[in-house]
Amino acid sequence: MKQDDGGQGAPLETEPAAAIDMAGAQIDTLRAFAADLAARGEELGLIGPLELPRLWTRHILNSAVLAPLLRTGGRVADIGTGGGMPGLVLGIIRPDVEVFLVEPMERRCAWLNEQIERLELTNTHVKRGRAEEFHGAFEADQITARAVTALKKLVPLTVPLLREQGELLFLKGAAIHDEIEAAQKVLRKHKVRDIEVLELGAEQLAESTRVFRAKVGTHG
Ligand SMILES: C[S@@+](CC[C@H](N)C(=O)[O-])C[C@H]1O[C@@H](n2cnc3c(N)ncnc32)[C@H](O)[C@@H]1O
């Protein structure tokens, strides 16, 4: 799975076979994004040098596990997209979904806008700012986030952006159960219900990815 880069830096990971299963017809677009992220992501401060050897498995396919959970024709807001995970990856794989990438940092927004234009992603848009700046002004059916902050802080940032019967989908690490425990009061306050921790991608990836999935509001 590793390929030598001729001594220029960390060896890059070649595309795992699972990428084709996960991206379907959008695989060429996903490859084009991965190649640019591998070439320029470190220089632009989007990805650390130690991450390059696991760019596909730990980053791109880790994001792609959310794609089958997105509602057909729905609107998704990805909070703190950074270099593109998971929101841009989801925008590529699911052209039927409208994806908004919420990111405050100017340089990261410039990168995301450049990728959207280059890859001709008409369904994907950047909203520059912090999540809380959009409370009351913007709503989505589903909210995604990866590596932004602990659940206790992420819930108050994201719930006000959810439409009625909306859903939270957060990519989380092995400590997710501790995060849920620490967030009990906040989860109750924001009426977060039907909480599940899904372990996805085990068949395609070396290790499974944990997804915090929950609904918000009264039962409907
Ligand atoms: C560690 S990076 C993770 C980036 C990407 N989600 C990933 O997994 O590679 C966290 C990102 O969240 C953004 N961020 C931090 N606080 C935020 C907030 N309140 N609203 C929206 N984005 C935020 C930062 O600018 C940064 O790009």
Describe the structure.
This protein is of the alpha/beta class and 220 residues long. It has a single domain (2-216), classed as Rossmann fold (3-Layer(aba) Sandwich). Helices cover 32% and strands 25% of the residues. The protein contains eight helices and nine strands. The chain has helices spanning 18-23, 27-40, 55-64, 87-93, 106-118, 151-158, 176-182, 184-189; strands spanning 2-3, 12-13, 75-79, 98-103, 124-128, 140-146, 162-172, 192-200, 209-216. The strands form two sheets. The chain has a seven-stranded mixed beta sheet. The protein has a two-stranded antiparallel ribbon with strand order 1-2. The N and C termini lie far apart (46 Å). Residues 1-7 have low confidence and may be disordered. This is Ribosomal RNA small subunit methyltransferase G. It is found in: Cytoplasm. Belongs to the methyltransferase superfamily. RNA methyltransferase RsmG family.
